[in-house]
Write a structure and sequence with these properties.
Number of domains: 2
Number of strands: 16
CATH superfamily of the largest domain: Aldolase class I
Order of helices and strands: EEEEEEEHHHHEEEHEHEHHEHHEHEHHE
Number of helices: 13
Radius of gyration: 22 Å
Strand order of the largest sheet: 1-2-3-4-5-6-7
Bound molecules: iron/sulfur cluster
CATH architecture of the largest domain: Alpha-Beta Barrel
Largest sheet: 7 strands, antiparallel
Structural class: alpha/beta
CATH class of the largest domain: Alpha Beta
Oligomer: single chain
Strand content: 15-25%
Shape: globular
Helix content: 25-40%
CATH topology of the largest domain: TIM Barrel
């Protein structure tokens, strides 16, 4: 509960509002008045569009994240709103009073109930790249067209399907209503799910046009896999670039072909190289994702060597991103079963950290000007 109501810092930004009663408490809200993130009692919190609340803390130099239960989320919402009430009571003439009314129109319960509105518009969103958490996600497709990589559970039990232009237009309108004025916070469009960009251009272009009409002035981003993306000719990628596609995210995982095959992911080093050259030729930015620790102790050395060899040949430059993503093994996965069959040991956290450094150092030596960044899939939030 509020204990101090003097020295408020109030900040009405173009797309969000921040209030801070003291150095220990900072709360930010979208333009619909819903909390986005806050720092309170030594912990950082974030609310997703589905009103899931995640706490974050640094322990021993490592970031740890956890999801709050509904009861805990309600307590947090109560706390956030109590500070907003305290501001109105102690400073009725404050500089953000119009926005404060939007914030105080919410209750903890109505904030939690945003989950139902979210679920009415979206099917589950499994993953996004870390630089794409603050975007408008639009689901042109559902699931992954392959869905058979042994390590991946993002789209399990979801047959791949594509929305018709009519169904997509309805979805896009629903997303716009859900976001309300908060859409100002989200400066680009992410075309989901796993492989939306593989749709033939005659199907994809009308969907992009619908998205851009509802959310104008935004660039488009999306995932694509090597083995499906390379089937699209470079002219088609050029057309998509002209329509506003800016960057594609490729789950490359490894440059070591036998490991890729062992994980049942189609594609090869050579295909990746050709595909990424095509994308660059089309004027697109590219982000590749490498799984740090994939293939455990059995593949570790070859995974490092071949991946670095591949990265050194890629035409990646400023604006491109190389994500290093610590591998997460799901105990029930086919990957885990196959690993047990060959007595493969997962890398320890220390070994994975060492492999991360090997990749980072090797990429640095390749003199690429692409950005290298960490990608914790468990920190994904939308
Ligand atoms: S890793 Fe990519 S291609 Fe493989 S199943 Fe998952 S989403 Fe599909």
């Amino acid at each position: 509960m509020p204990t101090s109501t003097t020295d408020w810092l109030l900040d009405a930004k173009a797309a969000s509002t921040a209030i801070s009663p003291n150095r220990q408490e900072v709360y930010s809200f979208d333009l619909a008045g819903r909390p986005i993130s806050w720092f309170s009692q030594g912990k950082a919190y974030k609310r997703s569009l589905a009103s899931n609340v995640f706490g974050r803390k640094t322990i021993g130099g490592k970031r740890r994240r956890w999801q709050l239960s509904n009861a805990e989320a309600l307590i947090q919402f109560e706390r956030v709103l109590s500070w907003a009430k305290a501001l109105r009571e102690t400073q009725p003439e404050n500089s953000i009073s119009g926005r404060l009314e939007h914030i105080l129109a919410w209750t903890p319960e109505s904030l939690l109930a945003e989950r139902e509105r979210f679920n009415a518009v979206y099917q589950p969103i499994s993953i996004l790249p870390p630089d794409q958490y603050q975007v408008v996600v639009l689901q042109a497709t559902f699931g992954c067209s392959w869905n058979r990589c042994t390590f991946c559970n993002f789209y399990q039990n979801r047959p791949f399907s594509t929305k018709s232009p009519e169904a997509f237009a309805q979805h896009v309108r629903g997303v716009a209503e859900l976001l309300g004025p908060a859409e100002n916070l989200r400066r680009s469009i992410f075309l989901a799910d796993g492989n939306a960009l593989i749709l033939a251009n005659h199907k994809l272009k009308p969907l992009i046009q619908i998205a851009k009409k509802q959310f104008p002035g935004r660039d488009i981003y999306g995932f694509v896999d090597v083995f499906s993306g390379e089937k699209k000719p470079v002219q088609d990628w050029t057309q998509l670039h002209e329509l506003g596609l800016r960057r594609v995210y490729i789950g490359l995982e490894t440059g070591h072909d036998p490991l890729l095959e062992w994980m049942n992911k189609p594609g090869s080093q050579e295909q990746a190289l050709n595909f990424i050259y095509s994308l660059k030729h089309a004027g697109l930015q590219v982000s590749i994702i490498i799984m740090v620790g994939a293939g455990g102790d059995v593949f570790a050395k070859a995974h490092e060597e071949d991946t670095l060899k591949l990265i050194a040949q890629l035409p990646l430059v400023k604006g491109d991103i190389i994500y290093l993503s610590p591998f997460v093994e799901h105990p029930e996965s086919l990957y885990a079963q196959k690993a047990a069959e060959i007595s493969m040991r997962q890398l320890t956290e220390a070994e994975r950290d060492a492999q991360f450094l090997t990749f980072r150092e090797g990429i640095h030596q390749s003199k690429t000007t692409a950005r290298v960044a960490l990608y914790h899939i468990q920190e994904f939030i939308y």
